Structure formats: structure tokens, C-alpha cells
Amino acid sequence: NEAILEVRGLKKFYDIEQGWFKDNIQVKAVDDISFHVNKGETFGIVGESGCGKSTTGRTILRLDEPTEGQILFEGSDINLLSYEKMRRLRRKMQMVFQDPYASLNPKKTIKQILTEPLRVHQLYSKKERIEKAIEILEIVGLSSYHLERYPHEFSGGQRQRIGIAKAVILNPELIVADEPVSALDVSVQSQVINLLLQLQDKFNLTYIFISHDLGVVRHITDRVAVMYLGKIVELAETEQLFTEPMHPYTKALISAVPINHPDEKKERIVLSGDVPSPANPPNGCTFHPRCASCMDICKREKPPVISFDDGHTVACHLYTN
Ligand code: SF4
Ligand code: MG
């Protein structure tokens, strides 16, 4: 398995003003995470909202600058690349957003939206760019007579197909899809998921699939990282994560997914309390106020990341020694 992406010690901190006195508070949106993504796989990132999933995705594509850490794409550290090299690399790394309506310029026709990335990267002649747009539109299941129409004339599902076409038209290697079906009707979700799977086959794509929907994640990912308050608390091959979760947070998340295998038994673990504010995370293991297995050490010391031979990693004191 060849890694297309390697993330080492990634941190993304923000300063925000908070409270009556507008104190500057540091939010550790992503706090020292490391993982790799293999070429051709679908790597899932799951967790509740505010856990740092989207920030991780954006930082990997350098839409946000990391505070610290390395992002190696095909072996080169993208933070060290010149503007020009980064511009060329950007073609290989694309993003599909949750809300296609927000990511498609409402004043532009579909033809303009789809040909623009090609124009920006100085690819093809004008005529060829339009041919490409027609080709990709058909690949995502829309016909060419839509070319002169505007985003508002489409349904949510159609708009996400256009968002996907816009990402794929540059023939990228890696696509970060951030909650790509969460805004769509359930009936449309599986169509868009199937389209993503077809495109992965056709174009040899690697996906990072960010989602809070564990049912979808189990269906389409090969490996999954579970994030909680800016950290990866567990990472494993998908089936292993779902059948033998180790971290108490993962166990709770999975227990809330409806059972889809008849021989599967599980008890719903209800988490007490909400996710604490990332501006003021608990000491020690940041999950400890919500953890039924919390021990004394958990309140004082951050758990180390424990790695097993099969690539399963977990950050929890239950598994030390
Ligand atoms: Fe729970 Fe302690 Fe493990 Fe944190 S380290 S998840 S508090 S058992
Ligand atoms: Mg998000």
C-alpha cells in the first residue's frame, strides 16, 4: 500500500475573542494528529460537529494554513512548496463541500463553473474546455442541455453532482469530501454516494470522506479515524472499527447507529453531556467528563496513542500496559 498523503503532528489553532472583556482565547481545532492515506482508498474521518474534521480537511488541502505539522502529498511537504508549485499541485487535490449551493457561484452558468478550473490551470483550448465540461456533466449523470443554466435551477442532488463534476474535471488524485450528502434528502443520498464510488473506480481516486453519519462511513470507507475535540482517538480498518471498537467514545458513537446485520447485538450507550468547548477542553483525557470508564489517571494525564500491529491505534488509558 502506497501512501498518497501523510499527515504528521498536524495542529491548527485559532485565536478567538470571548466574553465580556473580549479575552483572546486559543482554540485548538486540530491538536497534534498524525495519519496516512493510501492511494486509491477511502479514508473516513468521523466525529460530532466541532471535533475538527472539517478543519483537518481544509488544512490538508492548504485552504487553511496549519499552525504546526507536516502534510506530505506524494512525498513532498506541501507547506514548503513555492506558490507556483502549490498552484500546480492544487489540481491534484480537490474538495467537495457539504453545501453545493454555497460552493457554486450563483451568477455563473454551469458551463462557466465547469470550465473555469480548466481555464485557471491553463488547460486546453476554449472549445476543448467546453467539450470537457459536457463530457464530465454526462459522467455525473446530467445532460449537456444544462450547460447554460444557473445553480438555482437545479435540485440539491443535481447541484451536488455539479459540485462533484467541478472537483473531478481537473482529473485530481485526491478528493476531500466534507459531509457531501448531509444536506441532501435521504432518497438522494445513496445516488450521490454511488456516483462517488463510480468515479473512484473510473478515475482511480483517493477519497477522504468526512462525515458524522456512521452508516454511510461503514458502507464506503476502507479505514476510519475517529476525532474528538481536535484529536484522533481511534483509527482502524472500517470493519474492525465497527465490530471491535476500543475507545469508549467510538463505542458510544457506534452504539447509536441502527443495526444492519441480523446477528449483531448491541446496547445503546448514551453519552452524558455535550462536547465541551474546544476553547476550554478538560484536562487529561478530554473525553473524561463523558466517559463511563473514567479512572483517576484520566483526569490528570493525556492518554498516549497506542498502536497495534494491524494498524489499529487508540488513545486511551484503558489500554496502557
Ligand atoms: Fe475514558 Fe480514560 Fe480512556 Fe479517556 S482515557 S476514554 S477517560 S478510559
Ligand atoms: Mg464540519
Overall description:
With 321 residues, the chain is an alpha/beta fold. The protein has a single domain, classed as Rossmann fold (3-Layer(aba) Sandwich). It contains 11 helices and 12 strands. Strand 4 and strand 5 form a beta hairpin. It starts with a strand and ends in a 6-residue tail after the last strand. The model has no long low-confidence stretch (mean pLDDT 92). The structure holds iron/sulfur cluster and magnesium ion (MG). The site of iron/sulfur cluster has 14 residues, from loops.
CATH homologous superfamily label: P-loop containing nucleotide triphosphate hydrolases
CATH architecture classification: 3-Layer(aba) Sandwich
Could you report the average pLDDT, rounded to the nearest whole number? 92
> Could you name the ranges where pLDDT drops below 50 across 5 or more consecutive residues?
none
DSSP strand (E) fraction? 15-25%
Distance between the termini: 30 Å
Q: What attributes does this structure have?
A:
321 residues; alpha/beta; Rossmann fold; eight-stranded mixed beta sheet; four-stranded antiparallel beta sheet; 12 strands; 32% helix; binds iron/sulfur cluster; binds magnesium ion
Concise structural overview:
This protein is of the alpha/beta class.
Strand and helix layout:
Blueprint: E1 3-18, E2 23-38, E3 42-46, H1 53-60, E4 68-73, E5 76-77, H2 83-90, E6 93-96, H3 100-103, H4 110-120, H5 126-139, H6 156-168, E7 174-178, H7 186-203, E8 206-211, H8 214-220, E9 223-228, E10 231-237, H9 238-243, H10 248-255, H11 296-300, E11 305-307, E12 313-315
Helix pairs in contact: 4-5, 5-6, 6-7
The structure holds iron/sulfur cluster and magnesium ion.
